[in-house]
UniProtKB/TrEMBL annotation:
This is 60S ribosomal protein L9B. The keyword Transcription does not apply. GO terms for molecular function: rRNA binding; structural constituent of ribosome. It holds the Pfam family Ribosomal_L6. InterPro entries: Ribosomal_uL6-like, Ribosomal_uL6-like_a/b-dom_sf, Ribosomal_uL6_a/b-dom, Ribosomal_uL6_CS2. The gene is RPL9B.
Length: 197
């Protein structure tokens, strides 16, 4: 079944500028600038001149004659744009805790050759292997102040922050052992925003 017309709307806060050209969305706000290429998704963006009842600009995302799957992409695009707006206004912060039973995990934060931060993990399960994880662009890592065995990943792009956290968690997977018993690793303990309300 085809849906003749479907649309979603995104409300843009006052301190954010959104520019869309050939489905490449650029969002500029107090925390910086983010760009996302959505040219592979067949949706139409409309920036109406008139503002909504609260005096804020809105973005309309539309699709004509779409199947059920095509209409599902509308909500995805809306979520992506919302995440970009949240990123440039509040930013994203992920907290990761070290979990170990016997061998204390040592985590060092270093600068790579290209200026990107790297996380170095030593003594995981007592192994001599040193694990290195390179952070995605725009992601900063620092040890938590006042909390032992915790690091904080911060950045404007939700995709980059969450991917960096996933990379750290994945590199500390326990292999060839019963994972119900060996729970060691670095795990995301908390997700939030840099600018707390």
């Amino acid at each position: 079944m085809k849906y003749i017309f479907s649309e979603e709307t995104v409300v843009v806060p006052e301190n954010v500028k959104v520019h869309i050209r050939s489905r490449i969305v650029t969002v500029e706000g107090p925390r910086g600038k983010l760009t996302k290429d959505l040219s592979h998704i067949a949706v139409t963006f409309a920036l109406p001149e008139e503002k909504n009842k609260d005096g804020l600009q809105t973005i309309r995302i539309e699709i004509h004659h779409g199947s059920r799957k095509n209409v599902a992409t509308l909500r995805t695009v809306k979520s992506i744009v919302d995440n970009l707006i949240t990123g440039v206004t509040k930013g994203y912060k992920y907290k990761m805790r070290y979990v170990y039973a016997h061998f204390p995990i040592n985590v060092n934060i270093e600068k790579g050759d290209d200026g990107q931060q790297m996380v170095e993990i030593r003594n995981f399960l007592g192994e001599k292997l040193v694990r290195h994880v390179k952070m995605a662009p725009g992601v900063t890592v620092e040890p938590s102040k006042g909390v032992k065995d915790q690091i904080e990943l911060t950045g404007e792009s939700l995709e980059n922050v969450s991917q960096s956290a996933a990379d750290i968690q994945q590199i500390c997977r326990v292999r060839n052992k019963d994972i119900r018993k060996f729970l060691d690793g670095l795990y995301v303990s908390e997700r939030g925003h840099i600018a707390e309300e």
